[in-house]
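name: query_chain
kind: protein
chains: 1
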Amino acid sequence: MANGHPASSIYQPHWRYPPKLKGLSGIYLNTAIRNLAFGLMSIFIPIYIYKITGSLASVFLFYSLWQAVQLIAIVPIAKLISKIGPDVSMLISNITRSVYLIFLALAASSPLFLWMAPIFGSITVPLYWLPYHTAFSSESKRKKLSRQLVTISNITRLATIFAPLLGGFIADKLGFGTLFPIGIFLLIASSLPIFLDEYNKKEPIYSLSELGKYTFAPKNRSLFLAFLFQGIESAVNSTAWPLILYFALPNLEKIGGLTTFTLIVSLVTINWLAKRLNQFKTIPLVFGNIIRNFAWLLRAITTNPLLITVSDPIYQLASIPVNLPYNILIYQRGEKHSLSFFVERELATHSGAFLSSFIIFLLLSFGIPWPAIALLAIWGTNLMTIFLIKFANHQKN
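structure:
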């Protein structure tokens, strides 16, 4: 013995005792690296698919397939996560996302790969986000939840603040064949902090019958519908908006620069709001969604590049008083109901995203103009607001 420890332990190499990242540190580091990868690429992928196919309808058929596969996969993947744990699940998600990006790169020369890509891209989402949400809700502190959500948001923005500008430059000058490998490297690197943190809890999941009873119980039904309509608006914003922006401003560097500018402005706003909001409140939610409706109307009624461009910072700033109370609500619920709650949320939001993508595909196939897509986003935003308020009022009674 040496100072109360076996003598042999003194000579054991340090790598056998890797340092453990405390609390949410592993999630913070993973978020920074992973979002850097997505910041370089995400806004440009719908544009890339449009360039390959030459068809707007094909872009939304691509995302309809993505969402359909994802809906089928959510429950089986949740059961897998409950057995293998979050660390391995997140690593697999980065591998499947890398395969997705490889297939997108190959699609430039062989369209067959384009239609294989969403199969791998879609399973990435529950593999990553189910354990991520479960870990965050488990490790976060209720009294500090607002600040911790802002910390995640700040990390994301700081890590990605110049990423869209850089990604646009790389895509414009060197091509997507260079951009995608950089993203793959960063995705794989983001797995390391997850294996060094303290959290690797295997969460149980409800059976399908229990999940159905919980989801559609009268007290939870309005929350499910709020998630569904949030998925409708979110899908329009993540897929249709980059294309609207590209047609108004057909330059990838400028699109990246605009996204960078918006991130800088929103960084200040979310820190200001977090000091004043530490629980779910409907007033900022309603106010933010009214402004987001205005941004979507602006996008619908004009083709002027300046007005289209101005609508982006308006939308992003208005999203802050929507997203902060919304995220407070879901993580407080997730703390009580764990993995099963986030399975419910994923099923609802991606049902909405599938409906949104498929409806847009049909609209475009029949020659319906862009303004109808903006109206779909407004419809989703307003119904999300109504059902969230209804749920919040139900909880008070």
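note: The mean pLDDT is 80.
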